[in-house]
Specification:
Blueprint: H1 5-15, H2 25-36, H3 41-51, H4 55-64, E1 76-81, H5 84-88, H6 91-102, E2 115-120, E3 132-134, E4 137-139, H7 144-151
Parallel strand pairs: 1-2
Antiparallel strand pairs: 1-3, 3-4
Helix pairs in contact: 1-2, 2-3, 3-4
The structure holds FE2/S2 (inorganic) cluster.
Amino acid sequence: MKLSKTEIEAIQHEMTLYEDPGAATIEALKIVQEHRGWVSDESLEAAAAVVGVTPTQMEAVATFYNLIFRQPVGRHVIMICDSISCYLTGYEEILAYLKKTLGIEFGQTTPDNRFTLLPICCLGNCDNGPAMRINTDYHGRLTPDKVDAILAEYP
Ligand code: FES
């Protein structure tokens, strides 16, 4: 899958910002993901060619950052924090509620392609646990009722 002109130009712009163009690797992955929702093998190889690194080098970066999705995801990605503060403030109840409400397990996407559910380490929102992130939005002090209201914001 070839990258679009817009993607290529955006990556090339990022490369101008670094002394070593290879340092734009993570930005290149983010650009691809912004445009496609996830980073396929073909897209990764195309982005590597633009940046001038090997696909293996690009893959190493992609797998290191857990916010780069290497499999298709739903329209909205729910990342629930499973670190200590959230664990102590109700993570298990909220996770069980999310799984029951959405009918999916970690790593799965709802059949209507609306939500993907993933675990994540501390979101830096520890004083508002239990916390989750949906796409780029942060939500905290979750209760089942609050989860219902929040999910409704993501059609
Ligand atoms: S422990 Fe959950 S946001 Fe920090």
